[in-house]
C-alpha cells in the first residue's frame, strides 16, 4: 500500500472518530441578548439567520462551531412552534458551540415591528449630512459607519 493511501486511511479514521466524539445535540439552544434586553435565554429554537461581515447565514442544530461578527441587519429566529421573530441588530457577535448552543450578543437590538420607517429614513438623512460636512478622516469614517447602520435600519423597517 502506498504512503498516500495509508495517510488517507489514517485521516479518514481520525475524522470518523472526531465526528463521533463531537456530541452534537438534536436541539438548538439560543441565548440572544443586547444591552437593552434579553430576547432569548437558553430557549429551544429551530433556526437562526444572522447577518455577518462574511455573509448572512442560517444556523440549524448540528451546525459547525462558528464565531462571526454581526453586521447591521436583521436576525431572524424561527421558533419550534412555527413563529418567526425578526430583530434589528447594530453589531455584535454570534457564537455556535459544539453542543448546538448559540449565543447572539448584540450591541443594540430591537424587534423589527417596533421600528418607525420614517424615523429610520430621517436617521439615514442625518448620517448622510454628517458625511457631507465631515472635515477629517475620522469624522468621515464615523459618518460612513453611521450610514451603513442607518441603511440597514431603513431596509429592516420597510
Using brief descriptors, characterize the structure shown.
about 160 residues; alpha+beta; ATP Synthase, domain 1; 2 domains; 9-stranded mixed beta sheet; 9 strands
Work out the radius of gyration: 21 Å
User: Any guess at the CATH architecture of the largest domain?
Assistant: Sandwich
Helical amount: 25-40%
- Helix-strand string: HEEEEEEEEEHH
Shape: globular
Distance between the termini: 63 Å
Fourth-tier CATH superfamily name of the largest domain = F0F1 ATP synthase delta/epsilon subunit, N-terminal
Model regions low in confidence, pLDDT < 50 over at least 5 residues: 18-24
Query: What's the number of helices?
Result: 3
Number of strands: 9
Structure in words:
This protein has three helices and nine strands. With 158 residues, it is an alpha+beta fold. It has two domains: 92 residues, ATP Synthase, domain 1; 43 residues. Strands 1, 2, 3, 4, 5, 6, 7, 8 and 9 form a nine-stranded mixed sheet that branches. The chain is globular and about 60 Å long.
Question: What's the structural blueprint in terms of helices and strands?
Answer:
Layout: H1 3-21, E1 28-34, E2 38-50, E3 57-59, E4 66-70, E5 73-79, E6 84-89, E7 92-96, E8 101-106, E9 109-111, H2 117-132, H3 137-157
Parallel strand pairs: 1-8
Antiparallel strand pairs: 1-2, 2-3, 2-5, 4-7, 5-6, 6-9, 7-8
Helix pairs in contact: 2-3
Compact description:
The protein has 158 residues and is of the alpha+beta class. The protein is 35% helix and 35% strand. The protein has 3 helices and 9 strands; from the N terminus they run αβββββββββαα.
Amino acid at each position: 500500500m502506498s504512503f498516500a493511501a495509508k495517510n488517507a486511511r489514517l485521516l479518514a479514521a481520525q475524522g470518523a472518530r472526531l465526528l463521533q466524539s463531537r456530541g452534537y445535540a438534536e436541539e438548538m439552544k439560543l441565548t440572544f441578548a443586547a444591552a437593552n434586553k434579553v430576547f432569548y435565554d437558553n430557549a429551544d429554537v429551530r433556526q437562526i439567520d444572522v447577518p455577518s461581515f462574511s455573509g448572512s447565514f442560517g444556523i440549524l442544530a448540528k451546525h459547525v462551531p462558528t464565531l462571526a461578527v454581526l453586521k447591521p441587519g436583521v436576525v431572524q429566529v424561527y421558533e419550534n412552534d412555527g413563529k418567526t421573530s425578526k430583530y434589528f441588530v447594530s453589531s455584535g457577535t454570534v457564537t455556535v458551540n459544539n453542543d448546538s448552543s448559540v449565543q447572539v450578543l448584540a450591541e443594540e437590538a430591537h424587534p423589527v415591528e417596533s421600528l418607525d420607517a420614517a424615523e429610520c429614513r430621517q436617521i439615514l438623512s442625518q448620517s448622510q449630512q454628517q458625511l457631507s460636512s465631515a472635515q477629517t478622516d475620522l469624522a468621515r469614517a464615523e459618518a460612513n459607519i453611521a450610514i451603513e447602520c442607518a441603511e440597514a435600519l431603513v431596509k429592516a423597517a420597510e
